[in-house]
Every structure is written in structure tokens, then in C-alpha cells.
Design goal:
190 residues, alpha/beta, Rossmann fold, 6-stranded parallel sheet, binds flavin mononucleotide
Length: 190
């Protein structure tokens, strides 16, 4: 797959790191992955995980230049994931601001009817934020809030993170064995 993974300044750098690691190691790959980082993403990541671990072979971009392929509809991509997605970025996308490479790319993915997955992290939500989520759902985005589940009895932080990442991979149409599927025998999980 050819993907954009955008990382913004919401809490949850671990989610981005884990998704990128799995994309890098995916036997269905190699995937072409462009990573776009907002300025605030770097700051929050420094607080949460130190230096973000980004796979070497993925291309890493900032958020301030439009000289990147994914801001144009003429460049073909399969999907874009914004993980974690701040409510600020979510709001700018919902209102068509296109004022950064990430917001513009999301705008392009929506207009080109390409898969756009947002993984927002905020709690609680105010009414403006809730309405922005509805606007994005109406525009065709997939919204997968970073809300972990616990019925798999996760034992580590990584297990908890994986309950969210599993849903992201499902929406990308990628096979994985991160979680046991509800009421399915172990061997059929994928
Ligand atoms: C430590 C830290 C944690 C933050 N966590 C969140 C969060 O969980 N969700 C959110 O929407 N914003 C969060 N923010 C605020 C965003 O970083 C801020 O709104 C920023 O402008 C987002 O910019 P960006 O979307 O361009 O990355 C956090 C900021 C800091 C410093």
C-alpha cells in the first residue's frame, strides 16, 4: 500500500510509533509510507516517548511545506491515517482550512474519495469538537477514536495500544493477529 501517516500534537505518540512499526514489519509489504509530523507532534512525542522511533525506510516530512507528494490529488495514494489526531487538526480539516501539509492532504483525500482515517484523542469533548467529528463522518472520513478496549484482558501498555491499532489496520484492510476476535476460534483470527 501507499500511505500517509500523519502525527499531530495529541497525546498518544505510542499509537503512531506502533502503527509505523507494524507497517514496516508487515509481511504483506513493503509499503510506501510517507510520515508527516506537525511541530506539536514532535513536542508531545518528546514528552511521552522521547525521540519518536521512525522506521528508516519511510520518508519523513514536516507539516509546513507543500512540496510533498500527498498534497496533490494527482499523486495516487491508498489511504491516510492521522494518528494521534489533535482536535485542532480535526477541526481544521472539518472546516477545509488546508493551511498545512497535513490539513491539505486530508482535504485532498476527502475530495478524491480516498480512505482517510482519523484517530482523535481528547476527553471530554466539547460541542464544537463533537460537531466537527460529525462533519468529518458526513464527509466520508473514518473516525476511530483512541479509545482502547479491555475485553481481551490486555496485560501491557502495548497490548492496550494494540486494541486501537487493530481497528486502524482493519480499516486499512490489512491482515493482522494483534487481537483475538470476539467469539472466533484463535486459529481464524487475522
Ligand atoms: C503534553 C500535551 C498533550 C496534549 N494532548 C492533546 C490531546 O490529547 N488532544 C488534543 O486535541 N490536543 C492535545 N494537546 C494540544 C495540541 O498539541 C495543540 O492543540 C496543538 O495546537 C495541536 O497542533 P497540531 O494539530 O498541528 O499538532 C496536547 C498538548 C500537549 C503539550
Amino acid at each position: 500500500m501507499k500511505l500517509v501517516v500523519a502525527i499531530t500534537g495529541a497525546s498518544g505518540s505510542l499509537y503512531a510509533q506502533r502503527l509505523l512499526q507494524l507497517l514496516d514489519e508487515d509481511p504483506q509489504g513493503p509499503h510506501e509510507v510517507h510520515v508527516a509530523l506537525s511541530t506539536h507532534a514532535r513536542e508531545v512525542a518528546m514528552t511521552e516517548v522521547g525521540k519518536l522511533a521512525l522506521p528508516d525506510r519511510f520518508q519523513v516530512h514536516g507539516d509546513d511545506s507543500m512540496r510533498v507528494p500527498f498534497v496533490s490529488g494527482s499523486a495516487k495514494f491508498d489511504a491516510m491515517v492521522i494518528i494521534p489526531c489533535s482536535m485542532g487538526t480535526l477541526g481544521r480539516i472539518a472546516h477545509g482550512y488546508s493551511d498545512s501539509a497535513i490539513a491539505r492532504a486530508a482535504d485532498v483525500f476527502l475530495k478524491e474519495k480516498r480512505r482517510l482515517i482519523l484517530v482523535p484523542r481528547e476527553t471530554p469533548w466539547n460541542l464544537i469538537q463533537a460537531r466537527n467529528v460529525v462533519t468529518l463522518l458526513e464527509a466520508g472520513a473514518d473516525v476511530i477514536p483512541a479509545i482502547p478496549s479491555f475485553y481481551h484482558r490486555p496485560e501491557t501498555v502495548l497490548d492496550v495500544v494494540d486494541t486501537v491499532i487493530a481497528r486502524v489496520l482493519d480499516h486499512l484492510g490489512m491482515k493482522h493477529t494483534l487481537i483475538k476476535r470476539w467469539m472466533e476460534p484463535e486459529e481464524t483470527k487475522d
